[in-house]
Amino acid sequence: MSYKYLLVSREDRLTVVTINRPEAFNSLNAEAHLELEAVFDNFAADTDQWVAILTGAGSKAFCAGHDLKQQASGGGLTTPKAGFAGLASRADLVKPVIAAVNGAAMGGGFEAALACDILVAAEHATFALPEPKVGLAALAGGIQRLPRELGLKQAMGMMLTGRAVTAQQGYAMGFVNEVVSGDVLEAARRWAADILACSPLSVRATKEAILKGLTETASDGMRDEWNYPSMKAMLESEDAVEGPERHLR
């Protein structure tokens, strides 16, 4: 498929999604949101695609959030059912998504990055939830995700002031996995390669159990995880037999 605001490529089992609005700091208008929702719908349904990377075009911005020009002209802040960037509210996606943050990740752009499972950032990248500065709030998952990732005080410090933090600060705070001085997309591909070297069913079962476990006690999670769909699929698969056999050879 061709897209107006995205570049999408498939590299064997890997899908690379690039927001392609560098002239607008890769901010998302209504049509771009819908394109991203369709891309991640297709990724989720495609049995040949196991891992995705989300990045932005150029070196200035990963995503600057909603297109404020659209909002100012009466276009509102409408996002698709799957949430900001077609990703932030997608609770049932068990395939891994890696954020390759190539520049500023602001507002919804930061929230889209937080919705990914691994976050790799260029050393010049910055992150902020500046919504309070413009009379809004981080309603694309930031209010929920940031305190879980950083702890209450660090999250409050960012969200109540709207202040930006650097990639290195994000690494120290714990929401950035790696800070890259070179090509951030190539670094994200390295992370993807490590995931692709594992059993896809095991990866999906692990992601599903981790995310569901965030809302349960440890004992409840250990009891319930056996019944999660991806876990049952893994345990009933040939991988669960062939993997240990291959390891013992």
Brief summary of the model shown:
With 249 residues, the chain is an alpha/beta fold.
Task: Characterise the protein shown here.
With 249 residues, this protein is of the alpha/beta class. The protein folds into two domains: 6-196, 2-enoyl-CoA Hydratase, Chain A, domain 1 (Alpha-Beta Complex), CATH 3.90.226; 200-248. It contains eleven helices and ten strands. The longest helix has 16 residues, at 30-45. The chain is globular.
Give me the count of strands: 10
In spatial order, strands of the major sheet run 1-2-3-5-7-10
CATH architecture of the largest domain: Alpha-Beta Complex
Series of secondary-structure elements, N-terminal to C-terminal: EEHEEHEEHEEHHEHEHHHHH
Most strands sheet: 6 strands, mixed
The value of Rg in angstroms is 18 Å
Task: State the main characteristics.
single chain; 249 residues; 2-enoyl-CoA Hydratase, Chain A, domain 1; six-stranded mixed beta sheet; four-stranded mixed beta sheet; 11 helices; 10 strands; globular
SSE arrangement:
Blueprint: E1 6-11, E2 14-19, H1 30-45, E3 51-56, E4 61-63, H2 68-75, E5 97-101, E6 104-106, H3 108-115, E7 118-122, E8 126-128, H4 142-150, H5 152-159, E9 165-166, H6 167-173, E10 178-180, H7 184-196, H8 200-213, H9 218-224, H10 229-235, H11 239-248
Parallel strand pairs: 2-3, 3-5, 4-6, 5-7, 6-8, 7-10
Antiparallel strand pairs: 1-2, 8-9
